[in-house]
Amino acid sequence: MALETRPKFVGVLSCSGEEEPEGTIARNAVRLVMEKYRPGITVSLCLPLYLAGDSGEQEFAKRVPVIAVDGCEKACARLSTEKYSGEVSDAIDIRALLRQWGVEDELSRSHPRELEWELAERVAREIVRIIDRYIEEGKVAATNTR
Amino acid sequence: MSDKKVYVIPCSGIGKASASVGRDATYRVVEDLLPDRADTLCLALLTLEDEEAREKVRDNYVVAIDGCAKDCARKNVEAAGRAPDIAHRVQDYLKKHKDLKPEAVLDVGEGGRKLVEIMSEELAGEIVGLLEEDD
Ligand code: SF4
Ligand code: SF4
Q1: Which of A52, A111, A118, B35 is the most buried (most CB within 10 A)?
Q2: pTM of the predicted model, to two decimals?
Q3: Do the Cβ atoms of A48 and B47 come within 8 Å?
């Protein structure tokens, strides 16, 4: 029997985004994927550990395919992963997505209302689409989906 | 009076309810209690070593709020070139208010919200003290 060497998890890494409403959407979307949509297969990391942690965190992108979820074009999650750990497999820029979706409403970074939660759900579903593609393509061994 | 700003920077804690408390307390301070003097900054910009963010940290006051003993906010601020003027862990407040345990990352619950209130009031007081020292 061939030994299974493919990663069992997908890394979904949110930027911290405290300053921006899109950053809050990024964090909430990643949590929704972890808790509600793909809990068995998703792993994450507190992004500032790339700099503050031990070198273990810097193995992240070497161990699992990473989807970087950024609030804006500054792309902190994607660029930090590339700087400290390795290439990301996919990247989402929420500000660009919202433009694409025609969202022009003023959003709150601190008090997400129905709209911000709807957008977080929508971003979460985008992330899920990417995870499911990895499973279909055999990029990850999907033994733990729920 | 110094025109320096106070950047309150919570850790990004994606997996800990305590980090969500720190973030909510930050928003309460910078948006409601001291909106004219305090602001926040994306911690990830410091992780990325973004020069503009590092300059903000070096030229202003900084408060670091961490959600666990890994102290990411404090350490990322230090890596930008200076120690924070005030640094706290949410756990320090929790030790004093053991009954106010936050429930979950996405919703800290009733206890968590009370802890946010207590923490933000105390933080705002400390920040005012810091600004007065400078006058
Ligand atoms: S990508 Fe944008 S919103 Fe996210 S942490 Fe960086 S600057 Fe903030
Ligand atoms: S201090 Fe702890 S909870 Fe906060 S970002 Fe670092 S590891 Fe995560």
Answers
A1: A52
A2: 0.95
A3: yes
